[in-house]
Amino acid sequence: MKYVDEFREPELIARTSEEIRRLADPRRHYRFMEVCGGHTHAIYRFGLKDLLPPNIELVHGPGCPVCVLPMGRIDDGLSMAASSDVIFTAFGDMMRVPGTHGSPLEYKARGADVRIVYSPADALKLARANPDRQVMFFAIGFETTAPSTALTLMRAKAERIRNFSVFSNHVTIIPAIRAILDSPDMRIDAFIGPGHVSTVIGCRPYEWIARHEGKPLVVSGFEPLDVLQSVAMLLVQLQRGEAKVENQYRRVVPWEGNRAALKAMAEVFTLRSYFEWRGMGFISQSALALSEAYAEWDAEKRFQVPGIRVTDPKAAQCGEVLKGVLKPAQCKLFGKECTPERPIGALMVSSEGSCAAYYQYEYRKSQLVSIPA
Amino acid sequence: MCLAIPGKIVSLADDPAHSALIEVAGVHRRVDVSLVEPDGIGPGDWVLIHVGFAMSKIREQDAYEQMSMLKALGETEAAMQEVRGYSTDDAEPPPKERSIP
After folding, report:
1. Which of B58, B73, B86 has the CB atom closest to A119's CB atom?
2. Within 13 Å and on the Cβ side, how many CA atoms surround A54?
3. With contacts defined as CB-CB under 8 Å, which chain B residues touch A223?
4. What is the pLDDT along chain B (101 residues), one digit of tens a residue?
5. Which helix (H) or strand (E) holds A270?
6. Complex confidence, ipTM
7. What is the CATH number of domain B5-85?
């Protein structure tokens, strides 16, 4: 409970933690998956495991967009950076993610024009300012981020900015949850639903998980108290034998989502029939490509991309960790060949990746050697 | 990646369309507000910002709580770096540096 003194409302936290202990059936083992990488980060950072009884296991889900991107897509994106008239733009999170021949940062060191942007709108701005260059935006993210890319493309089209293009790697959360539920080696009792994705899609798209799969889901905020309250809400449902979708993060997430965002996504994107997820294989209808109306701005059509599938290093077990089958430290490379300083898998790169979060908050602590007095 | 940064609307603007000048801990930047316009927004309102776009309108108290959570998560620097990173040739008042409460 290293960070417990930093919590707001410590009394309420202690009370909720007590409530969880009271609600949890000691004869049962619970496996709750937090779908979102932001939750994974918060859970490790705040040491929330220590506030839960040992029979509640939090399983880390696939909700880190950098982590689920297969290496072949990174290579495809970087293949465009090789041309001298291209400005390759991406969020900072992407910059250290290794491709077969290096990360975007390493390409930059070798002379490619690789630039960090903090918003897709800034990539478009670069295109306006450099009419004789091609500006490609390497788009990643779930439904939280996809509307921003969509609005940027709508603007590019309205302004007829033709030296701008988007390499879309946007993915959607629902098919990933479905893949987890269909996976034979997974046993999840309930879900802590993603907070910010739900500001866009709302709560309705999760209803099948409760109705058809019989699993409770609570859309949760990111504060320690939010996550603990969500765990308590899931336990109440399980105790009553119920399965429904509840919204703990009502202060930010409307039940119906954001209509303007959904409309922009529907205008600009179309569902890919399938898309490869790192460690999870091909998942049907799980990613967004640019629609026909935006084909002119589609980097996959403008540039020749190799489109080769690249397998992860054999020894790395990113897939098992991503699906929650293995804990980060159970991977053979964890903390040895693969560290945040020299990541082999993407889970070690992003602060939302479970390996990086585990390394930063749990592993280092366990490696401190006590000095005898 | 999933950072949601609270900011206060200083003023709305037509150029570029659907934009607003927003203050985050003393830093002023222009962000796109198309997605929250249907909720009715104006100067003094608080929004959560993600990659340069306002995603949802929130209450002032929730904005302060979100800030303190980013601080507790050790993400303040990343959040401020993101906000400062929004390219901003048209930001009006010079950014005042101020640390997050």
Report:
1. B86
2. 1
3. 65, 69
4. 567 999 999 999 988 889 999 999 899 999 999 999 999 999 999 999 999 999 999 999 999 988 888 888 888 888 998 999 887 654 444 444 444 44
5. strand A269-271
6. 0.90
7. 2.30.30.140
